[in-house]
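Hi support team,

I've been running sequence recovery on a batch of backbones for a student project. Most finish fine, but this one hangs at about 90% for roughly twenty minutes before it completes. I'm not sure whether the input is malformed or the queue is just slow. I've pasted the structure tokens below so you can try to reproduce it. Let me know if you need the job ID as well.

Thanks,
M.K.
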């Protein structure tokens, strides 16, 4: 059990029988009252955001989240299909809402970590940085630095990010999956 002040960012807790990930936490005290922890949490099953205030006497159960290695297969009409790393016949799907922005950086046949709450898959854990090929990049125009020397490029997954002017189609770039930002050019 977690005390009210131990419910901090990135902790997984059970609230009303469902798992939540803490997105924001702020412990404060109003005048002479007891301290309160104002928490913003995301439901790991539905993706819904919930704001809760935990009093000094409140406790929360920590959710046990397991991770398993899986292979991403394909997506079709908002359903993203995965299979067990060692057993391709053991397939399951996840909805776009559960994947969030991480779906922009997943290529077919990539091995990923999927988070489980009991036997239920609830989300994907990507590596912090991935390498993707650039499919579209507008040509660099000499002297066009009014926008800070960056341009919008399209990656092999369909994601669009800001990158320096020297990036061309066919380049392989490293992208931070947490922020969605360009890190560096890896090669051609």
């Amino acid at each position: 059990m977690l005390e009210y002040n131990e419910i901090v960012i990135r902790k997984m807790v059970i609230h009303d029988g469902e798992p939540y990930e803490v997105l924001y936490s702020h412990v404060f005290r109003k005048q002479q009252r007891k301290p309160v922890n104002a928490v913003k949490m995301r439901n790991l099953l539905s993706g819904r955001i919930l704001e809760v205030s935990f009093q000094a006497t409140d406790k929360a159960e920590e959710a046990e989240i397991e991770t398993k290695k899986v292979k991403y297969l394909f997506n079709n009409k908002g359903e993203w299909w995965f299979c067990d790393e060692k057993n391709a016949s053991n397939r399951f799907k996840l909805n776009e809402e559960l994947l969030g922005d991480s779906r922009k950086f997943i290529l077919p046949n990539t091995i990923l970590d999927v988070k489980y709450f009991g036997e239920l898959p609830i989300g994907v854990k990507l590596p912090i940085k991935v390498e993707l090929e650039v499919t579209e990049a507008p040509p660099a125009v000499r002297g066009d630095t009014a926008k800070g020397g960056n341009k919008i490029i399209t990656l092999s997954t369909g994601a669009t990010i800001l990158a320096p002017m020297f990036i061309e189609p066919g380049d392989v770039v490293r992208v931070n999956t947490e922020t969605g930002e360009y890190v560096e050019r890896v090669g051609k």
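--
Follow-up from support: It reproduced on our side and the slowdown came from queue contention, not your input. The helical segments are 96-99. No action needed from you.
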